[in-house]
Amino acid sequence: MSSKHAHLDLGLVVRGHGRHYIVEDAQGQRHVCHPRGKKSDCVVGDQVRWAPSGDEGVIEAVEPRRNLLFRQDEWKTKSFAANLDQLLVLVAVEPVFSESQLARALIAAESAGISARIALNKTDLPGAAAARERLQPYRDMGMEVMEVALKADPAGSRALLTPWLQGKRTFVLGPSGTGKSTLINLLVPDAQAQVGDISQALNSGRHTTTTTQWYWMDEAQPRTALIDSPGFQEFGLKQIEPAQLPLLMPDLRAHAGDCRFYNCTHQHEPGCGVIAALQAGQISASRYRIYGEILEELSRQRW
Ligand SMILES: Nc1nc2c(ncn2[C@@H]2O[C@H](COP(=O)(O)OP(=O)(O)OP(=O)(O)O)[C@@H](O)[C@H]2O)c(=O)[nH]1
Ligand SMILES: [Zn+2]
């Protein structure tokens, strides 16, 4: 970043409210800040150079990002957060999760270079076996699936999750109703206090999960963070080149090198390693279908 701002304090963006951001300074104090101009557009997780201005602050510059998790549809880009260590995709036995959304979240993470795990919540419910089965293709491709019951077995769930979260900045993504709030309240006992009065005032009556929120799990020596995000309906992946897509899906990637044609789309070409693996049961039918759907979306012309 431009050295002319190097003398300014570094802060961490812990929340955004439209054109207002909450920036945490090195002492853990939080300040309402405004970006100066378009150049300092920032997202939760950004390190920023900022200066006090009256009761509030001005963000002068955003430090270079290590990574950025985002989704992109036809018309707009929606950033989730920056500088993440890992992604936790939380799904539940109920409501039944969309495998397409799950696959998309994992592709976005892979594309951003962020490692991911799945947690399956509400395993105390009778549908657990069916949900587990739907996640089998993910286990088969080497993905870790942690089974929890955040409400029914809080102690067991905490014991399973904590070692993986320790010392990391973890972004939590999942559809509404899966237990994200339950997770935060289990692992961050003072969660409400961390949202804080400033945020509540800025949010002016809106439900708290409409914005991404940063939580410290260890407030004394903050290193471990959970970043809670609002649910989403759409998960566009327009940032990805069609030819890249199979390389971002580990089960397809494992066979994409076996195709006769170097530019095989794995749709109908003869001598396709991916189709052979599908027929041999090494790639699940649902994953292959999702691949086709996303590929079609990415290949569609923009008018
Ligand atoms: N049976 C069962 N229910 C659970 C478990 N964990 C959470 N729930 C319930 O699932 C419902 C949704 O949980 P929340 O934590 O509010 O879910 P959320 O993801 O924050 O939902 P949004 O606020 O809509 O984003 C609540 O009624 C919880 O009590 C569990 O382990 N087992
Ligand atoms: Zn192929």
TrEMBL record:
Residues 82-233 form the EngC GTPase domain. This is Small ribosomal subunit biogenesis GTPase RsgA. It comes from Roseateles asaccharophilus. One of several proteins that assist in the late maturation steps of the functional core of the 30S ribosomal subunit. Helps release RbfA from mature subunits. May play a role in the assembly of ribosomal proteins into the subunit. Circularly permuted GTPase that catalyzes slow GTP hydrolysis, GTPase activity is stimulated by the 30S ribosomal subunit. Belongs to the TRAFAC class YlqF/YawG GTPase family. RsgA subfamily. One of its GO terms (cellular component) is cytoplasm. CDD domains: S1_YloQ_GTPase (cd04466), YjeQ_EngC (cd01854). It is an enzyme of class 3 (hydrolase).
